[in-house]
Amino acid sequence: MTRNVVISGGGTGIGLAAAQMFAADGDRVLLLGRRGDVLERAGAGVPGASVYAADLADPVAVRGASGFVGREFGAVDVLIHSAGGNGLLEPPAGGDDPLDAVARHWTVNFRLNLLTAVLLTEALKDRLAEPGGRLLFLSSIAAYRGSGQLAYAAAKAGLHPYAHDLARKLGPHGITVNVVAPGYVEDTAFFGDGLDDERRARLIAETSDGRAGRPGDVAATLHWLASPGAAHITSQIIQVNGGAERGH
Asked: Most buried by CB count within 10 Å: which residue of 14, 104, 199, 240?
């Protein structure tokens, strides 16, 4: 059965890998993101994909995206929140005041990683298929251990209680809600221009299988959680990190 799949942050990395995987199953995929040119290029490589450019931290833009989903899809079978980032690619705060820089950094990270997911969920949750809807969030290993970017870690950790609350509320409607928390994943835009060799080696050394994660590793987990076989799995945080962080 063809499903309607909406993926935020679908233009690159994990979101794009997930889009390709669902499309390969014959599902209809909608890619959301801020950069229209990136979405158009990504959509050209995903069979039958639609794209819609929107800043998902802006309520007005989210209402526009929700209207598009209603017109094009109606019901949503799978909603995946892959949009986010560590804020390093955003413009810095103006001026030299260190508190201004801190406020800017934390605000940007919460907008990118938490507010985008909350606004899009609240706009579309009444469209989730009943029963059978799947709501999936992308967290991070950083949410468990902190990281050099503490604002990013805190923002990702904020997804966890939100997902647990939604799982309780939506469970009676036959909708599951889960979180996937990846470790270090290569071939994404997360580290901007790249990662120095020393840090890359250190991150890989933390794993039990001795390799970096790939977008397809996370996409496959999302795909499984959206499958009928995962119908009794909800309110869980699934770690995909090669053993760099053990289960909790």
From this structure: 14
52 annotated active-site: no
CA angle 215–219–114, rounded 5-degree value: 85
Q: What is the largest CA-CA distance in the chain?
A: 56
Write out pLDDT tens, residues 97-113: 899 989 999 999 999 99
Which CATH topology does 4-240 take? Rossmann fold (3.40.50)
pTM of the full predicted structure?
0.95
Q: Considering the candidates 144, 152, 162, 184, report the single residue annotated as catalytic.
A: 152
Domain ranges within the chain, ordered by starting residue: 4-240
